Structure formats: structure tokens, C-alpha cells
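Here's what a typical entry looks like (Phosphate acyltransferase):
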Amino acid sequence: MGSSRARIAIDAMGGDNAPAAIVTGALQAASELDVDVLLVGDPQKIDSCIKEHQKDANFPNLNQVEIIPADEVVEMHEEPLSALKRKRNASIRVAMELVKKNQAQAIVSAGHSGAAMAAALLHLGRLPGIDRPAIGAIFPTIVPNKSVLILDVGANVDCRPKFLEQFAVMGTIYSQYVLGVDEPKVGLLNIGEEPSKGNDQAVRTHQMLVDNPLVPFFGNAEGRDILSGNFDVIVCDGFAGNVVLKFAEGLGEIVLNILKEELTQGIMGKMGVTLLKPSLKRFKQRVDHVERGGGLLLGVAGICIITHGSSQGPTVYNAIRLAKDAIDHNVLDRMQSQFELQKQLTAVPEPTAES
């Protein structure tokens, strides 16, 4: 394998549709994204899935795929930490160790999200200056070609104000260097625009974000602001963020289904769909969560993408693309540098002999 290509470990056994859907997305990524993929899991099952695509002209780069054996899986019903300790050869654990040993630059998993986070903390650890990692998810907005990053969307149900402040710093860096926003606007999810609105956590966090020179804070963001395009980054605890994530995904699916049903009624409707097909395709790309691939686990000392348990091939492909973007833009190094700068800015000066 070429050393200049990004190497990404894939938990091939994680997810409702593993390993078939995982392998399909990984093969597409290997063919189109200039990445080498390391498929971690049951060799026989993975190899069987690969052979199904050997004659597929869409996947010419099967030689860019390597199988790494792992004969155990953390099931969705298992408690993450105990399962990882008990199943030392679990696919998510083996994949994470590849990143720890620098044999891969990133990991993608559609499996147990709690296990992915626990494995990342156990094997990769946190970046210096980070108390809690956060899952960042990218949402479309009403503004064409503009998205909003929301974090946390599920890693931390309860958050202290300083955790939310750290999320804001990480979100700012990701928005700037991966999403390409020159001057990102950061908001705090709340029930009102005024600084005094919300619970004690929200009020304290608001002041901390106002005082932090590394965060371009633009105030509170209400629920109606999430998809407005007025903010580039919105921070919240994982409880609220996960509710927003699941609601947005459900809403997108409902809108797509309603359009499909209504626009195909009768002969005129079917003719109209034919004419509108390019526009409908662009609409689907803007609202369908499949196009976004998943969320980046920000704050751990490695690039880790957590995607949907129900992921099909296209979602896995986009998750790998998300991982490659993070690698290409040196997200980890930038975050580490920024938190080192924050540490210097907030350091208490040593008392001098005169004082």
C-alpha cells in the first residue's frame, strides 16, 4: 500500500447491517477517496463480502483493502466497559489499537457507540486540556452550501460549564479548518436569547464563552436558530443534542417520504417528478443524514468517526470521507495547539519576589 494514502481502520462487524454494508462502503471509499482501508473483524465473513464485489467495475481497487482478524463483537445490549475488558479481541478494540499503534490514522465504527467511546478513552486517551470528549454532528441549514456543527450529540448526558466551553473551542477549530468557515459564529443552545435565560448551567456557560478569547461567541441559540444558518457551531449537553439529532433525522425522512408520495400521484405527478429529478436529488443530498456520514468524536487523541447503527454502504462511505477530511486538515494537532494556547492565556502568573 502507498505510504502517502490515508490508512483508516473500519470496525467491519459493528452495526445492524455488518459486515456486508460496511464492506461495500469501505470498498467504494478505497476506490474513490485515495484511502487504504483496514477491515477489522471475522476474516471469512469479510472475505466473502469482498468476493461479491470482485467483478464490480465500481470497485477497481480491491488491493487497497486489508483484513485484520478480530473474532469478537461488542453487542448493542452489552455494557461497554465490561464488554471491552472481557472481549479483548473485539473488533472495535482491535481497530482502536491500530490507531494507537499508528498503524492507522483514523477509525470508523457503526457499532455500539458507547463501546466506541469507551475504547477511544481506554486506548487513545483524551487530548491535553479536554475533560470530556464530544460527538459533533453536521446539520444542513436553510442557507445553501452552509452547514452547522452541533456538539455534543450524545457522548455526555450531563455537562459542566467548562465541558461546554471546551466543546466550543473544539467546534471552532473543526468549523474553521474542516468545514472551511473563516470566522465561525458559535452559539449556546438555550431557551432564549438573553444572557440570563436558562438554567444555572446555561447562565454560567454563557459568561465563560463571553470571556474566552478563543471562542467567537455570538450568544444563545434557540431551537429555531439551529437550521437557520445564523450559527456555524452550536454547543449543548449530550442529552439535548441527541434529541435534536434524532428529531432532525426523523424530520428529514418524513419530508422525503411525503414528497415521494405526493409528487408521484397521477400521471401529471409522475411527469413532474421526471422534470424535477435533478432538483429533488439536490434536496435529498441537503436533508438526508446518510450524506453526512456520522459524527466525529472530538477530544480524544485520535480521529474516531461514530456513524449510525443502521448504516448502509453510502453512509459508511461518507463516514470514511469525514475521517479523511479530519486527517487532511490536521484536526488533532490544531486542537492540541489551541488548548495549549488557552492554557497559557488562563495561567496564573507566578508571584515575583517584589510582590
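The two ends are 61 Å apart (CA to CA).

More examples are in the samples folder.
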